[in-house]
Amino acid sequence: MEFALSEADTAFRSDLVGFLDRELAEGWNRSECGLGSAVYTDFSRGFVRTLAAKGWLTPHWPPEYGGGGQGAWQHFVLGEEMWKRGEPRGPQYMNVNWVGPALIKYGTEEQRRSLLPPIARGDVFWCQGFSEPEAGTDLAALRTRAARDGEDYILNGQKIWTSYANEADYCFLLARTGSVADGRDGISVFLLPLNTPGVEVRRIDGFVGEHSFNELFLTDVRVPGTCLLGEENKGWDIVRRTLAYERVGAPRYARAALVLDGLAGWCRAAGLLTDPGVQEQFGDARALCEAARVLVYRVIDERAKAKEPSPMAYQARAAMVQAERAVGDLALDVMGTEALAEQSRGDAQFRNSLGAGIAAGSYEVQLNLISRLILKLPKG
Amino acid sequence: MDFERSDTQRALLDALGTLLNRHAGPQRCRELAARGAYDHELESELRAAGFLDVFGEADAGPLEAVLAVEQISAQLGAITPVPHLLVLPALGLPVPEGPVVLADRDAPGPVRYGGEARQLLVAGADRCATAELSPDDAEPVPSAYGYPLARVVPRLAENLAPGTSQAMINWWRVGVCAEALGMMQRAFDLTVAYAKDRTVFGRALGSFQALQHRLAESSVLLEGSRWLTYEAAFRGATAESSAVAAAYTMAALHRLTRETHQITGAVGLTREHDLHLWTLRLQAVRAELGGLRAHRRAVVTSRWGVAAA
Asked: Do A264 and B303 touch (CB under 8 A)?
């Protein structure tokens, strides 16, 4: 066992920290506040191009697709430092973490050539079209249809909770090419340009940070067969393999720990940090953030060794949810009504923590998977 | 980073497992507990096999010593592994024969093996003090929690160097985490096996989602405790890493105790069932160093540089 980064990764971290100190000095004061606002998204557009120019937007991609060929730890250190600053890449982490890698692994040469360079340059946003009104966590129940028509597909259906669809250029979309009775075996992945006629985006205002959700209505949307990723009806496999690390891809504990440090500063100024009860709550929240960190590291170690992803990722993800919730609750408890002020630390963290156990697969689903795959408990 | 056990660690744990199979375990623990006795035989076997020297060895070290403490506790070894394997070696002190008592000036109370120990180590404000104990210094305290307890009032103490107190407390914290980890894991494994075997209302107890989620959450707490504890040992028990590990592990201990007993039901409350061998001893670990509240406040002191009011 070894709980230290390699010298190269440590050196990379310090380079990166210096770079972020310089680049984020101006125009970025949102490190502890909400994700998803217009100001935030606009800032991220410029910032990711700067990162791309430095080779740090897609350092883990193979060099032939605009990557730096770096290892899993360097990629993870990048993510951790970004989340420590409130994730200035905005919606881009999705592109670079899993949309790109899915294209690299399952795309045709033509798809790779046309779609990867814009991602590597930071020029495009992608969104994720998985959830539907009748199928959120239960993806096998999805109903959006893709019917073959000669060389084309005609898409009809509805997606929901699609973050950033109002800003995105493409959607990584799941649609049913088989029958509903096929469950997971009749699903395919489509790479859908959102400017295709028949696509309508409707905004649903959320109250988690400044974030908004969207609905995506697809009415007789005609796309060429070249929009299909991988084989028809094999979309579930692509998603399962590609998203295996998505559970821990966003190191949210790093942001929670940043907020916690900020809250400690606030409490110190307010004369509260010497209060034994307040101290206990801070100690607990810090321990939860650290546990989430070390459990995520364990998953990254597995990835760095190129092992098949194990169900440990679900434990790591559950720990991240616990950490975010603890910091959100602490914020409201210690700040009192000050936490109710828009964009205060308490406000941002609490509203964020409400979504922690819902986005990217619910907390309960993680617990079900742990029960079944790690503890091997019998089915209900 | 590398979360896998090295060949050295595996070999060490295999050898220790073989030794413990012969000299520890629930049966041996029950016999000793009936007499309130310390396992001198186990200690001398461990000493002869070199396990008390692991902390300072070139091809092993503190992390390996922590792994050993965990395994000894899982097998209910009736010795004092934390002072022997971690705290005394960390302070560069010789490891005497027989039990050694660790005490915290700020958290007085009955101590494990206080009646039988001949040596005491107390954490003061800055320096540790060591003291020889005689049987007259100890007042036994009857207790159901698996360890013989006594209040001790030493007569003569000798102060160690400045700063020793913090080092002692940090390693002691890592030590109670390792002990807790070993015992929690066994209590949890036993409970999961029970949940699979026991049938109620025509189905396995462990097939009810209400219980599955609680067991799954417990497994997260257990794994979090494990890796925070190992990491703290790897980092040389810094004030923050050891306080964080203890704050998390002791909270896990509280939850694990409740869940394992709730899920095993009435049978888990009996002496004939093994669960209590681990869960009652866990409570002695839970109480040391001021317990959960003190660990959490120590996190704040080390992280944000604030002392308690």
From this structure: yes
